[in-house]
Amino acid sequence: MTGERRVVITGLGLATPIGIGADAYWEALLSRRCGVAAIRAFDASALPCRIAAELPEFSLGDTIPKAYRKAAKVMSRDTQIAVVCAYHAVRDAGLVTSCMIGRGEAPGPPNLDPARFGANIGAGLVCADLPELAAALNTAVDERGKFSHDLWGSVGMGNLTPLWLLKFLPNMLACHVTIVHDAQANSNTITCGEASSHLAIGEAYRTIARGSADVCICGGAESKVNPMALTRPLLYGRLSTKGNDDPSRACRPFAADAPGTVASEGGGLVILEALDRAKARGARIYGELVGFGASTNTTSWSAPDPTGAPVALAVNHALRDARLTAQNIDLMVAFGSGVDAFDACEAAGWKTVMGDRMAQSHAVAVKGAIGVNGAGSGAIDFATGVLSLHHQTVPPSLNTESAATCTGLRFAPKDPLDARIDTVASVAYSLVGSQVAALVVRRYRE
Amino acid sequence: MSRRVVISGMGWITPLGHDIEGVWKKLLAGESGVSPTEIFDAKRYPTSFSAQVKGFDLAAFLGSDAARHAGASRNAAFALAAAQMAWSQAGLQRHDSLDPARVGIYLGGGEGPIDFEPFVEAAIAGCRDDEGGGIPLDTVRWAARAMNVLDAVRELEQDPNLAASHLAVQFNAQGPSLNTLTACAASTQAIGEAAHMIRRGDADVVIAGGTHSMIHPLGVTGFSRLTALSTRNNECIRASRPFDRQRDGFVLGEGAGMIILEVLEHAQARGANPSCEILGYGSTADAFRITDIHEEGRGAVAAMRMALEAAGVAVSDIDYISAHGTGTQENDKIETLAIRRLFGPRAKSVPISSVKSMLGHLIAAAGAVEFITCVLAIRDQVVPPTINYDSPDPACDLDYVPNQARRAPVRTAMSNSFGFGGQNDTVVVRRFDA
């Protein structure tokens, strides 16, 4: 739209099962590392799915000022992941926030105005800490062995820490991040399942373009590797129960017989910045965000639209927003969860949009390596597209050699592929619910 | 000139009823929707009362379509009913020419209520050994029971984007749909962002609002542990008392508020008669502490200022403020301070009220319901009261329209919502003048 400000990507902060930090992730992706393994977080032996993609060890304390370490006690795993991502994004962008000053990593003053620094962070249904909650509930059992509201109300609930609820509100990801980095402008939390990150990045893009903020930290984070979060998608048939003996082959995007996805944890936060500001401070520019489009599946809230029309509509909206056409797309970042029905619909959507261009354009899908974490998945996809653009390389897509050829998606074979990449389109959609969103990134040119 | 965004329909499901006019009359009469909690057995909970939606039947709103949404959570059902009301009021059902790709959704929808009984059954099974003795959670024992007793649909319905997804199916809204969950500020944020969506041209019509029910055992537990709830169990209809010196916390409510936002040209082209226009929106983060509001209301002042600037109006133009006014000591004191800081001498002469005194706190849905009361105040030139206001608090020294509704000239109103963690959102709405 005319009169809007241009928006560029100046920082990437990733926490993925194959690497924390954008560089570590990119290297692992190029070397075809897989993050899926037997679950370590808890004993999952009684569940039909016993594998997941968990994060490598990280030290939260290394990503926040010392004075904030006390607050870590009220952070859910999801929030911790967001805070880790935020640190990496801010550092990667060369932003001097209160966190970087507080940690002694940069001398003050900040190089951005807190009142013009916003946050748009995608979050999931943050699960209560089950061992803590179950132990408390178990104190409210009467002599017949039944849960008693009278016992719970009068005594049992007192076993929960007073701040218990605050750990699990979805907006706590954004709240902790805004406190740690002193971001006082528009703060939003998008909760639309796997579409959350794309929608959050799109909203942040609009926020800067219209002038409500100059810099936004945006994306999403979630952990599905806890008993409740893993059991829920098992119940509604999203997870593979066939890969327990061969974890690294469990998630196979676009395979004709894709047995389901693999639960994961992780996230990504990216720094979006008004172009004039980024240029003024001499920031490295990864690329320009030029298009955002969203749509909704109106055929169902629990199954995809078989025609792929919502995917096509979102990508077309984003292309129109970018004043580009499918002919411009050099790389498609597919969501490709490994759930066959969803993958088939997505492929149909891409085909509708791309037509003949399918045969010239490349594709990448990373879920074979890192699974699906929910609200943070899209941001990792988006960052994958941005890194591909930056390095002019199509990374390999693990476990896509069995992708049905009828999809027409051209994934890189085993090795990374040098390619001329000018424009990247990325799509994401919720695996429960109806939201779809797409983003288009271009190489920055004056 | 940017596109103007008008309100062409409204609907709500509240503890005082399920229709716009009936509930509005009760609000103006100062009635309370608070009563002992019946949704679950709360009689021994620290707080045994709440503001519940009663006698609700989705089929009364959707007719035979209700069957399509048979598994809908309480949240999603409230949202469907309120949206149907708003959609009909907007006259949209008669307009088949509506382009579905230009219809969007922006909700502040809460998570669906937890499916408590099976959840507890599995939790307890996981904490008992073979002899029934208590043990730390054994996830193997837990999983064996959980996979049997948890229900796929009732689990799926807890995802916070499900209400928006039900609406998309019901109203064939194929445009962008988003759900924000910024705690108690969510639906004010949704309305503000929805207006931006239209202004920019990403949609022509948006169903915006919020829906939430946290009146379930763990929701009440969470707020009780935070000591955020009033514990005035012996006189519960007197418990919600925003700005009163004797206030001791908020009263948990539930429900939904939905509005149809529309670009002016679209509304006029189909002969709709918009009553009000969204003028401005401000959103900020305190970026201060998770547990406390900034002592000087820094974020609240900034959000209100941003909304005024976006609206292009001065503090002297604001005729009414619908306060966040929860009835907690901290919120009401700091909100008052924030209004005083921004409005200066004008603060004392603006009528301010909190309908939470009558409806309780609808959490994610609160902002939408309160926004609707602003539109009605503008329409009828009357402001709703803050009930249960008996004893002035020196820290809350503004005009809270105590106990009695008041006739007042209202052309422009401001609605505030502030959420846990320092989320601040303000919307400014004005009578529509062509």
C-alpha end-to-end distance of chain A: 18 Å
- The helix fraction of chain B, in percent, is 25-40%
Compute the number of helices of chain B. Answer: 14
Order of helices and strands of chain A: EEHEEHHEHHHEHEHEHEHEHEHHEEEE
Walk me through this protein's architecture:
The complex is a heterodimer of chains A (446) and B (434). Chain A contains 13 helices and 15 strands. By secondary structure, chain A is an alpha/beta fold. Chain A has two domains: 7-127 and 168-442, Thiolase/Chalcone synthase (Peroxisomal Thiolase, Chain A, domain 1), CATH 3.40.47.10; 130-164, no CATH class. The longest helix of chain A is centred in the first third of the chain and has 17 residues, at 77-93. Chain A is globular. Chain A starts with 6 loop residues before the first strand and ends with a strand. A ten-stranded mixed beta sheet of chain B has the order 5-4-6-7-1-8-14-13-9-10, sandwiched between helices. A two-stranded antiparallel sheet of chain B has the order 2-3. In chain B, a hairpin with a 3-residue loop joins strand 13 and strand 14. Chains A and B meet through helix 4, helix 5, helix 6, strand 6 and helix 7 of A and strand 4, helix 4, helix 5, helix 6 and helix 7 of B.
Task: For this entry, give a set of tags.
heterodimer; A: 446 residues; alpha/beta; Peroxisomal Thiolase, Chain A, domain 1; eleven-stranded mixed β-sheet; two-stranded antiparallel ribbon; 13 helices; 30% helix; globular; B: 434 residues; ten-stranded mixed β-sheet; 14 helices; 18% strand
Short description:
Chain A is of the alpha/beta class and 446 residues long. Chain A has helices at residues 22-30, 77-93, 98-102, 130-137, 149-154, 172-181, 196-209, 227-235, 275-280, 309-322, 340-354, 367-370, 377-391; strands at residues 7-16, 19-20, 36-38, 51-53, 117-122, 187-190, 215-223, 265-274, 287-296, 331-333, 362-364, 393-394, 417-418, 423-429, 435-442. In chain A, strands 1, 2, 5, 6, 7, 8, 9, 10, 11, 14 and 15 form an 11-stranded mixed beta sheet that branches. In chain A, strands 3-4 form a two-stranded antiparallel ribbon. A two-stranded antiparallel ribbon of chain A has the order 12-13.
